[in-house]
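This part of the workshop introduces the protein records we will be handling. A record pairs a protein's sequence with a compact description of its fold. As an example, a complete record with its sequence and its structure tokens follows.

_____
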Amino acid sequence: MNKITEFISEIENVDSISFEQSFRIISYCTQLLSQHSAEAEVSVRKIVIHVLNNWEKVDKNIYEVWADLIETLGFYPYIQKNSSDLKLMSFADDVRMSYFQSDFLENMYLHKEQKKISKYLLSGKSIIASAPTSFGKSLLIEEIVASKKYKNIVIIQPTLALLDETRLKLKKYADDYKIIVRTSQSYSEERRNLFLLTAERVMEYEPLPPIDFLIIDEFYKLSLRRKDDRVDTLNNAFLKVVNKFHPRFYFLGPNIDGITKGFAEKYNAIFYKSDFSLVDCDVIDKSYLIDWSKSSKQIDKTKTNILCELLKELQNEQTLIYCSTPARARRMAKTYFEYLQKIGQEKDNQLPLVEWINKNISPKWSLAKELQYGVAFHDGSLQKHIGASIIKYFNEGMLNCIFCTSTIIEGVNTSAKNVILFDEKKGGYEIDFFDYSNIKGRSGRMMEHYVGRIFNFCHIPAQKPIIIDIPFYEQDPKILTNEILVNIKEDDVKLEVKSRYDQINALPADLLSIIKQNGVSINGQIRIYSKLTADLKSKGILQNIQWSQLPTWDQMYYVLQVAENNLFNFDDKRGVFSVKQLARYLNMYRTKKNIIDIVNDIFNSKISNVKTLTEERKSRYYDEAVETAFHIYRHWFQFTVPKTFRVVDSIQRLICEKKNIKPGSYSFFVQQLENDFIRENLSILVEFGIPSNAVRRLEKVIPANLSEDEVINFIKRNRDNMKRLLLSYENERLEQCI
């Protein structure tokens, strides 16, 4: 045990920290800091964080000396938070602290590393920032917005959930910026504009005004080596904005050691890496309790037993449990809920969401029961408002534990006192040290939990430097996709990929323009172009192409069939197995406008061939049906199908115009599908996370001739009248989102 560990153990385990003990620790810390090394400062930060975690034990007579050390470390947010105890001793200290007050965020102090990045950003530098989860990188986004330095800002985040969190934080600036979250919203010529978009929506938004500043959150998703299926679109979104407008930019992400050499220099940017953190993490190994020589089934049983006992121990603290897949997270949540029932735990959580689930989905869904015991799961298939509410309840201490997948590390912003690494996979892949660090980074929460804990049920991956490749700059011919290559400016194309680039650019200019804008498989789009061109010669097929408004079954089936294996496939076999099945579910949803019909259809199909249907099996099959239907809704109805119809629409328009025949128009159907078949001016409410069935009830009282902005103001003025139409949960969502 080294000296640092000894001090931390002493701080955590004694009943009180005497004047003499404090003085001894402070003297040691001061001696370490005099070495002026990064390693020594990290050690001192760890010690001081543990002192703050046990502040009630510290002798009050030495508060001022501790304040001096804490100020030296640059922990200004904590000095502000504990201002009654941490009083600075001199005028010089006060002056120095005032320097760390944000210039634009009221009563907000930055720690010393935040201040460095802030100064760079506000002086007009482009920054690529790599820092721990608890660093407070996203606070600097708000500072940029609050500064009003830039007229048009684009913020790209990987998920709609993250964007909605950002919108809620930034809606206080609505008087200064028009906040744009959908491609249907036009920007303001007179005011500033703040675009909160996914990469896909950046590509679809036309035309953008001159963009002064670009922010990409979780920028490691630019890497082609990290297995993300949306990587092409993110690279192209960057190129679209930067090639045209040359804005300053801010990339932010965690635990990255470097980026493609030369990229920062080309774009006059600074790569800024920091390990600075205001929280510490205790690593607790549970893997030694598991006999890894046994079968997978036996190992899983042992892990599950240890997990349930540990969670019971931690039930007064908030805990995230990382699982490899959505199905795994849901199964483990249910297992723990059943364990709590078995040991006689009483349900005492009366969350409004439970009533809503019971009335709008089913009391049979295990989530409704689990929530009453302070247990939930979270994954990318959940309806947007349910996922957002689970995070909100958790952040407010109304839920004890969430069983989650990688969505919790890269899809939303939340942290907990405890994180449990239960599985060592992410989907079908082994997690690497980068993933592990990100999961670990969710333990502890700045300004709330000084010290978090990660419990490892798996072996820790080997530590390796994380270098993020920037594909459009690096242009490695072995991995660079044509979909990125086609959007690179000709002057920037490297010799190794020039022949491929020239081959793509030999396509007809009008087709190439559409292919670039669509940003999906080039070969797939070329095959669709050939198929539609051939089919347009047949009068029998013409009606399946030249439609507008809402398609018939045959027209919908035709478009999906043309796109299969060109824009999408059914390789993962999760929820949908064929075009015919997808068209059937799509038709069912647009007719009934209720995902529960699909849930019941899947459930009835599952039980139809089961001879002995126990209650346990019925419950399991129903949970599986809900998960599958929600996945179909989020993956297919809200993402893949609208994109598919947009791409086919753009190609058929080009062909029809070349042949001087009337083209079809699929945009109304795409908008209807993306808007959940909600009236156009109310679709913004679904975007904001209000359940669609609640929005349909509001249709009766909100005039159809109002614009989206006017709808929000109408609701604010008539909120009391709205309440009687909604359940308490729906009112809760409305209050939070508007």
The longest strand covers residues 192-197. The domain at 280-456 is CATH 3.40.50.300 (Rossmann fold). The chain has a mean pLDDT of 91. DSSP finds 35 helices and 17 strands in the chain.
